[in-house]
Automatic annotation (TrEMBL):
<dbReference type="Pfam" id="PF02608">
    <property type="entry name" value="Bmp"/>
</dbReference>
<dbReference type="InterPro" id="IPR052910">
    <property type="entry name" value="ABC-Purine-Binding"/>
</dbReference>
<dbReference type="InterPro" id="IPR003760">
    <property type="entry name" value="PnrA-like"/>
</dbReference>
<feature type="domain" description="ABC transporter substrate-binding protein PnrA-like">
    <location>
        <begin position="44"/>
        <end position="326"/>
    </location>
</feature>
<keyword id="KW-0732">Signal</keyword>
<protein>
    <submittedName>
        <fullName>Nucleoside-binding protein</fullName>
    </submittedName>
</protein>
<dbReference type="GO" id="GO:0005886">
    <property type="term" value="C:plasma membrane"/>
</dbReference>
Amino acid sequence: MKLSKKILTIVFTLVLAVALVGCGSQEKPKAAEEGKKDAATDKLKVAFIYVGPVGDGGYSYAHDLGRQYLVKEMPDIETTIVESVPEGADSERVLTELAEKGNKIIFATSFGYMDPVIKVAQKYPDVKFLHCSGYKTADNVGTYFGRMYQARYLSGIVAGKTTKTNTIGYVAAFPIPEVVRGINAFTQGVRSVNPNAKVNVVWTNTWYDPAAEKEAGKSLLETGADVVAQHQDTPGPQQAAEEKGKFGIGYNSDMSKMAPKAVLTSAVWNWGPYYVNTVKAIKEGTWKSDQYWGPISDNIVDLAPFGPMVPEDVKQLVETKKQELIEGKFDVFDGPVKDQTGKERVAAGQKMSDADMLSFDWFVEGVEGTIPK
């Protein structure tokens, strides 16, 4: 009986020792994991809010490609995204939450976020806010955009050379200066190679509504358009063109994968280098609030590769005009420029100012349609 007790005592001691060793081995990974978390919290936190889903294949997708480029180039930062944030009050809530969670840089990527950004920025002076396509700034708020109208002009050349009916459709988003400027630039490009062509405009008042945007494209095709351009975030108009055996000009990102038989090219964004340069400047303490409006020479805007249906002579023409834009030999709205009534708005030898381009509220000659108030 005593021997049994001794044996039990020895066994119990061994089991206890093993248990203690086991507990020790569990504590080490836990400590290591805590160390990883501590290291992660030391990373600069950068947030992005998108008006649509990343999977839209368009605007928000292009911004997220830029974010991914940023992460690749600067692995010492931590990024957060919030998708499908409506413009207005809800965006104010999201911006506030992102600031409260320790994000020191917040990129708000849609025009309608402008006033909420300004309001929230006042409460968080140590956070830098970058607002895309807006015009209001503060000490800790800057704006950024690219001269997409230059890429629009180039895509208009392709459309003007492609159309056989001399009727080109344009599915427009909201009647704001950015969209009006894009329509005008596209039309300037069309008519630079085809003065007889006209551009018909249909408004959807959407950024992301695949069904509505596709239907708008169909309506333009049914009234004689054989090329369709767009300003929304979905490939709906391009898909409508493909179903009708017609052609289209995509936007935001290369839309050829979604409608390979229709897409001639796409006017595209390349946000990555801007995001890297901006975050580096903030980290280094050299950033100052400004209104960045990058030209095609900065590569922030460009054209996607041409579809196989685009002839070589058209590709060469576009490349020649692109180089002239890059070299500053001309710009899209250099005079003479007339409005759709035939009235001269920019005289020959004159250049339209940035302020006038940023407040566009009239259509150029060749546009068929009106701008809703």
